[in-house]
Amino acid sequence: MDLYCVRILRSQPLRLALTVGGIALCIVLMLFLLSVYRGVADGSVEYIRQNKADLWVLQRNATNILRGSSVLFTSHGKNIQKVPNVKSTSPVLLLLSAVRKDDKVATVFLAGYEPASGFGGPPELTEGRLVLNNDEIILDESFATKFHFKVGDLAQIQGDTLKIVGISTKTNAFVTQYAFVTLSRAQSLIGFPNIVTCYLVKVKEGSDKLKVARQIRERVPGVEVYDHETFLQNNIREMQSGFLPFIYTVAAIGVIVLTAILSLLLSINILERRKDFAIMKTLGSPSGFLPRLIVQQALLISSAGIVVALVLFFPMVALIEKMSPEVSSKSSAEQIVVVVLGVGLMSLISSLVSMQRLRRIYTLEVFS
Amino acid sequence: MSRMENQTDVVQLASVSKIFGSNEHKTIAVQDISLEASSGELVMLLGPSGSGKTTLLTLIAGLVEPTSGTVSLFGRDIEDYTSKELQKLRAVRIGFVFQTFHLIDSLTVIENVALVARFGGKTKTEAKRQALRLLEQFHIEHLVKKFPANLSQGEKQRVAVARAIANGAELIIADEPTASLETKQGFDIIRLLHEYAKEENRCVIVASHDLRIVEFADRVLRLEDGVITQTQLRAINQLSNEPTNESICGIPLTSENNNTII
Prior knowledge:
By secondary structure, chain A is an alpha+beta fold.
């Protein structure tokens, strides 16, 4: 690293600090978006991923449960049960519902399931127990934290009062959180006692799942059958299609701001050092010397920005998650490497943008 | 003046003209200038502001191309040099001294001198060693860690001269090197340049309107409106230490219409 590059940057400490700060915030933003994306990508489908069902049966043309509707009847369940090699059939009814506490109202993704089978219930409890009867409910951990619910409290759902008996984890879908009640309670809330969203099917041990799926399609009209992995991927794809564009847009803004800040600083430095650069050109600086100075400045500032960002990032995430428990994030070394490489690339682009100014600095400027 | 045996042609200009702009905006900066400058020689371009001195220097340095005529540097037509070769030439074989010194403010004295040595291809250590040796030679080694802002005008110009010769330049181009200096400082600087020309057998071309320093020149070329109006050959030992008010080196201080030249 050339001494002169460091001297240029140090000559304006406030400007340098502001630039490094701005870049650090852009990097924090990008890291945060990536970690939130990973947190949401994993969290929103965790309910499905953790489920032990071999096959998911939904209404024909329904592909997922996150952003699709599926209505089946209890008669479908009876027909599915008759298909050879089907071991068990567990109905689940999913609906958006409002939970009220005092004057606060929040929406949950209510999953009604049969406690006896266990299929369709919470993947994991951090506190309490599973629901046993119709007057009980399990809430997601981040939802409970945000709205100050705890085991033993009462929650109002569409006029009914339910007792919170458990707190679940891996049930945060970011835009909403899962809550669990008995199937009959969910059906009574919706007002149709014989309606479900899907059936979770276990096949008999040793039987071919795909063959069973084909037989269900043949014997039960109006249904779509997915194996576990396909259904999981369907939901991930659906989540990404709704969430990724937002992430990409905000990340792109972060990248543009970062590049703009860096280009601006480099350009200002070139303008301010115009005389010095003209002198160096006159004195015979090698052709790569001045461009290298610009690249070095960019990399130096970016490196400082990355260090500051990493120092700020983890406390900031902890603070955000404390303030907004529904915001779940997952950080990894891989994300940091991606962001560092991205920032390095943006630094080079900023350098190239600023370097155009070097061409308009002439040796004759020193003769006056 | 007969050329000494160890003298070699460094600069040759043949009928060089430089015109800026075109049509009604045309400015003739220098016109039909021919000159030669050799190693061991201090040539002075004397003339008032706007006479074309600086343009002539930039032509000699290969920083601008002549509109007509040929410029040869170190025995080779300047047009035959690639831009990379010209850059290398300026880094290694040509040194520059400017009126306002043009030191890099954010570098210390030694770093300023070493920078040019680095441009010339020396390693960091070699460049610093060379810079220190020159600063000692110029008796300003106590300034090595100072920044230009903390130097006097005279000190700045001494550093600038040290920088100009950091690579052992065979040609020094000095544009008004004494204009910003007091008389004694000006003499010190021109003496340094003169010593460099004589002791190191280098070519020094000085553009100036400062008549106080012409006594150090081997040759004085007087420019007016881009044209050499008078060439005066001088030997240093023939010069008076106390120039008269009427003329210096045979060049009158007043023009024909009695206007003061400087």
